[in-house]
Amino acid sequence: MSTLEVNKFVTPEMCMYCFDVLNASLHSSQFPVEPRFQNDSFPLFVTWKIVHGSDKRLRGCIGTFSKKKLHLGLKSYALSAALEDSRFDPVTATELPSLQCTVSLLIDFEKVDDCMDWEIGIHGIWIEFKDHLGMKRTATYLPEVMSEQGWTRMEALESLLRKGGHVGRVSKALIKGITLTRYKSEKTSMTYGDYVQHHIHIREQHELPLPDWITVKA
């Protein structure tokens, strides 16, 4: 089950736009025209994964908790997630046919008093804590991460602390000092194959040739 029963804001066209933007960047072609979906402001994340059968491997994920206009925000984070995630080498054109794009719009933010007051599979979590030097650190996991990893709440918090830069033992005092904000997301995903099929359908309707950069799997 998705994090929300009904998506009110996110649409598949948002993933298509991310693919359009990445395609244009990797092939040095003209960026797509302004999309037709709404241009309201949301915190958002763009996630790229490599898909081989049932196996999915993270290839890049970057976003923001600040509200961004969707047209510019998706364009910016589609590229930064694919090309600037420091955990990975930049995505290459040869990887495009294996990519899946997920757009997550973040909603329903709630700061909670108890850092265990959230539900796996329902909430994403954003934590703030101080490291051993007293510096404030932050880190987040989107709602799907904990259920995909099979973590308990405590395992998720420990992993998130390390993601935020904590080293050493995770003490009760450290856990108690966490400020946690829970949130939900609306998300939609699309594979490159689905993206290509859409382009084929639209261009057949208008009797237009496919652009050179579209690769159709045999």
Highlighted features:
single chain; 218 residues; alpha+beta; Glycoprotein, Type 4 Pilin; Dna Ligase, domain 1; six-stranded antiparallel β-sheet; 6 strands; 30% helix; 31% strand; AMMECR1_dom_sf; AMMECR1 domain-containing protein
Average pLDDT, all residues: 89
Q: What is the first-to-last residue Cα distance?
A: 32 Å
> What does the oligomeric state look like here?
single chain
Q: Quick one: CATH class of the largest domain?
A: Alpha Beta
- Output the helix-strand order: HEEHEEEHHHEH
Protein name: AMMECR1 domain-containing protein
Organism: Sphaeroforma arctica JP610
Domain AMMECR1: 3-199
Pfam families: AMMECR1 (PF01871)
Put the structure in a nutshell.
By secondary structure, the protein is of the alpha+beta class. The protein has helices at 12-26, 70-83, 143-149, 153-163, 172-176, 192-205; strands at residues 41-52, 55-69, 99-112, 124-130, 136-141, 179-191. It contains 6 helices and 6 strands, in the order H-E-E-H-E-E-E-H-H-H-E-H.
What can you tell me about this protein's structure?
The structure is a single chain. By secondary structure, the chain is an alpha+beta fold. The protein has helices at 12-26, 70-83, 143-149, 153-163, 172-176, 192-205; strands at 41-52, 55-69, 99-112, 124-130, 136-141, 179-191. It has two domains: 12-107 and 186-205, Glycoprotein, Type 4 Pilin (2-Layer Sandwich); 108-183, Dna Ligase, domain 1 (2-Layer Sandwich). It has six helices and six strands; from the N terminus they run αββαβββαααβα. It has a six-stranded antiparallel sheet. Helix 1 (12-26) packs across helix 2. The protein is elongated, with a radius of gyration of 19 Å. It starts with 11 loop residues before the first helix and ends in a 13-residue tail after the last helix.
